[in-house]
Structures are given as structure tokens and as C-alpha cells.
Amino acid sequence: MTDRYAVFGHPIAHSKSPLIHAAFARQTGQDMRYEAILAPLDGFAGSVRAFIDAGGRGANVTVPFKEEAYALATTLTARARRAGAVNTLSFAADGITGDNTDGAGLLADLTRNLHRSLAGERILLLGAGGAARGVIGPLLDAQPATLVIANRTVARARALADSFGRDDVGVCGFDAIEGEFDLVVNATAASLAGELPPLPPSIFAPGALAYDMMYGHTTPFLEFARAQGCAGADGLGMLVEQAAEAFFVWRGVRPDTRPVIASLREPPPAAGWQEART
Ligand code: NDP
């Protein structure tokens, strides 16, 4: 029987996850079906339970349900616990396992697709919301020389750094960022609103990479980086890589992500844009 998977969100119509998982299944010959399910804002757990009753084997979870998925899981992986949120659920007779593949997805995109070696790099992380929280652990594991979290609300960045129990993580507001960085990751929601956080232009070291977790089109942050002569990448690779990690969790098979990233990139980056993804 064909195994069933789904992504739960609200809204969900825009999600590329069904396309991505269908491509992975074709490529690896897995007999599975993956659909998008719009869960009511007050009915996430009920929707998931109905899906399990209908034979669902696993699910991805997106905005705004990642914390609810964390609460729903009966077992949590170490990386889900560290992220405080769940984006991947696996269903078995004895319970629901919650995992988080967002951080692994970012790291895979940075290291495998964009050829960055993060060890010894100076990393600036913009934002202190759910996306930032999900990637801090894996970024620290990569042993950068420094990690600084800059956020509009400084207290939120401080609380985030404290929750990781690391006093070597820097914290500041956008107007107090000092020095230059080899990697600047935009994990704020500013790009969603077409806005640019008020960043000093001097933050990019020679050879730096600007990475915007948002995907789909060039963002004010990537335009800003380009104006400073800096290479950039959007979050499409992270999206596909976190999906590949979830696929591996469920099926035990690693799909080849590159053709999937390439097929989703429509239209190609504008002429003249120094695309870091090769
Ligand atoms: P949250 O709502 O949890 O956090 C939002 C963050 O953005 C906060 O730090 C907030 O600051 C900051 N922020 C919001 N608006 C502005 C603004 N106008 N200027 C400066 N800072 C702002 O969102 P998420 O963390 O869930 O998502 C952040 C981004 O990451 C989104 O663009 C999302 O699409 C993307 N994302 C991409 C993924 C991928 O696979 N590529 C996966 C997950 C997320 P404050 O604390 O002061 O409110």
C-alpha cells in the first residue's frame, strides 16, 4: 500500500513541500504520497490525529504549528529539544516522534551546496525568532570563530543566547553590530515585508556570503549585500535540504537535492547577480 505523508500549516497552499517530496520519491523509487493539509488554527492536533487514523506515516509541520507539534510529540529527538520546535513527525504504533531538520537543512546547504567551511568563520545571525532558534545549535556545532545574534528586540536575542548556555555568543541590536563577518544569515521576517533591517554596510568581510532564509525572489537583504560586492544565496536550498533530511528520517534514503533545487528555481537569478550557489 502507498505510504502517506503530509505537510500541515496555515496557510499551506503556497507550500513547495509536496513538489519536493514527489520529486524525491520519483528519484529514489519510494512508493509514497505526500499532500498539503490546511489545519484549522485551533485544530492542529485533531488534524494530525485524523491523518494518523487514515494511515499517515509521517508529516512535516510549518508556520504556525511548530511549537504545537513539539507539544504533540511523545518522543523528541535531541535536535528538536534543542530547537524548541518540531518540523518533522513520524508516526508509529507506540507514539509520535518529533524531530527538527531545519538546522541540518541550513548546514547542508551552506556546506555541501555553497561550499562554505564554517569552522573558524565569523558568523552574524540576524533575528531571534523560531528560524534563528532552530539553526543556532548546528551553527555552534560547526565551531565558528564567533557567533553574534543581532535582533530588533535585543532582549529576545539575549534570552535566546542564554537558553543555549553559551556566554561566548554575542548579542546586540542592529545599530550596535561591530566588526565584519564571513557569513551573515538573515533569519528575520523582514524580507517577508520587503524590508531591510538597519545594518551597517561594513558587516561583510572580503569573500563573505550573505544568506537570506527567505526564498522565491531577490530580497532587500540580498540586494544590500550585492551593493557591498558580497555573494548571496536565498533559502531555497535550506528548504529542499530540510525536506531531504525529513525524507531520510522517514524512508532511510538520501535523495539527490541538486536537481530538485535547480528545478524549483524559476525564474533564474537576475543577470549580474553574483549567485553563490553553483
Ligand atoms: P518569527 O516570527 O519567529 O521571528 C521573526 C524574527 O524577525 C524576529 O527576530 C523579529 O524581531 C524579526 N523581524 C520581524 N520583522 C522585522 C523587521 N521588519 N525588521 C527587522 N526584524 C524583523 O519568524 P521565523 O523565525 O519563523 O521566520 C523568519 C524567516 O525565516 C521567514 O522569512 C521565514 O520564511 C524564513 N524561514 C525559512 C526557512 C527555509 O527553509 N528556508 C525555514 C524557516 C523559516 P523581533 O524579535 O524584534 O520581533
Would you mind describing this structure in some detail?
By secondary structure, this protein is of the alpha/beta class. It has 2 domains: 3-101 and 240-263, 3-Layer(aba) Sandwich (Rossmann fold), CATH 3.40.50.10860; 103-236, NAD(P)-binding Rossmann-like Domain (Rossmann fold, 3-Layer(aba) Sandwich). It contains 10 helices and 12 strands. The protein has a 6-stranded mixed beta sheet with strand order 2-1-3-5-6-4, with helices on both faces. Helix 1 crosses helix 9 (236-251), helix 5 crosses helix 6 (130-141) and helix 5 (102-113) packs across helix 9. The longest helix is centred in the last third of the chain and has 16 residues, at 236-251. The N and C termini lie far apart (39 Å).
CATH class of the largest domain: Alpha Beta
The profile of the biggest β sheet is: 6 strands, mixed
Q: Helical proportion?
A: 25-40%
Strand order across the largest sheet: 2-1-3-5-6-4
The dominant shape is: globular
Series of H and E elements: EHEHEHEHEEHEHEHEEEHEHH
What is the C-alpha radius of gyration, as a whole number of Å?
19 Å
List keywords for this structure.
alpha/beta; 23% strand; Rossmann fold; six-stranded mixed sheet
Protein topology:
Elements: E1 3-9, H1 17-28, E2 32-38, H2 44-53, E3 56-61, H3 66-72, E4 75-76, H4 78-83, E5 88-92, E6 95-99, H5 102-113, E7 122-126, H6 130-141, E8 146-150, H7 154-163, E9 169-172, E10 181-186, E11 204-212, H8 220-227, E12 231-233, H9 236-251, H10 258-264
Helix pairs in contact: 1-9, 5-6, 5-9
The structure holds NADPH dihydro-nicotinamide-adenine-dinucleotide phosphate.
NADPH dihydro-nicotinamide-adenine-dinucleotide phosphate (NDP) binds at residues 102, 127-132, 151-153, 156, 187-193, 195, 197, 213-215, 235, 238-239, 242.
